Amino acid sequence: MSGLVECPSCGRLVSREASACPSCGQPIRRSGCRILDEALGAFLGCAGTLFSLLVIAFVIAFLFGGC
Length: 67
Prior knowledge:
Helices cover 49% and strands 9% of the residues. With 67 residues, it is mainly alpha-helical. It has two domains: 1-30, no CATH class; 37-67. The chain has a two-stranded antiparallel sheet with strand order 1-2. A hairpin with a 6-residue loop joins strand 1 and strand 2 (13-15).
């Protein structure tokens, strides 16, 4: 699958990542699935970071907790 789409206004090839055509400024519509994928990826990135911090805190508490 190509990373380029045709601009609906001027017909030039535009990156799928672009929000607008660089030639004519026509907004490039993003699909609902793509927006959902980006939002889910951002959420999972944050959740992964929080989980990693929680694990590190638990390990530090376990090692220096002095049971």
